[in-house]
Design goal:
alpha+beta; 2 domains; 5-stranded antiparallel beta sheet; 2 helices; elongated
Length: about 150
């Protein structure tokens, strides 16, 4: 009898877990609906960033203009990782900053976008920023038994 009750409890738990998955995917669809759906490459790039662990600072995508054309700038996230600059068609134009030298790949040296200047003009805005919280590190603690 106990085995049947345990089996039913496990079955009910599994069904509830399955019932929650469509709701989670609906939430993901709402996130993608907020993105510019006319740019599937950008949506795919953001999904790629979201599939990676959370970075510090958090990843973001900034829409701005460069040489009179709309571009998408992804700031560097850490260490020697370069920033990325994409044309409106999704082609990677250059790595404007970061990398080992801090100067990027020098293919578009005229492009400058500093963090405090992001929203100073009407042509520049953050279109996506990773809002996830970093996972708490699993630090094992030493348990000392009380030997009294």
């Amino acid at each position: 009898m106990k085995i049947i009750v345990i089996f039913i409890a496990i079955l009910a738990f599994n069904l509830t877990a399955c019932a929650q998955k469509p709701a989670e995917s609906g939430k993901a669809e709402n996130i993608s609906a907020k993105l510019d759906t006319t740019l599937p490459w950008l949506q795919a790039k953001i999904w790629e960033y979201q599939s990676r662990p959370v970075s510090n600072p958090a990843r973001s995508v900034v829409k701005t203009t460069f040489e009179g054309k709309p571009v998408y700038y992804v700031p560097p996230v850490c260490c020697d990782i370069p920033s990325e600059l994409y044309a409106e068609d999704g082609k990677l134009m250059c790595y404007p900053s970061g990398g080992f030298t801090g100067s990027g790949d020098l293919k578009c040296p005229k492009f400058k976008l500093e963090y405090p200047d992001y929203v100073k003009d009407n042509k520049t805005n953050i279109i996506w920023q990773d809002k996830r919280k970093p996972a708490v590190e699993n630090k094992s603690t030493l348990v000392v038994p009380d030997l009294k």
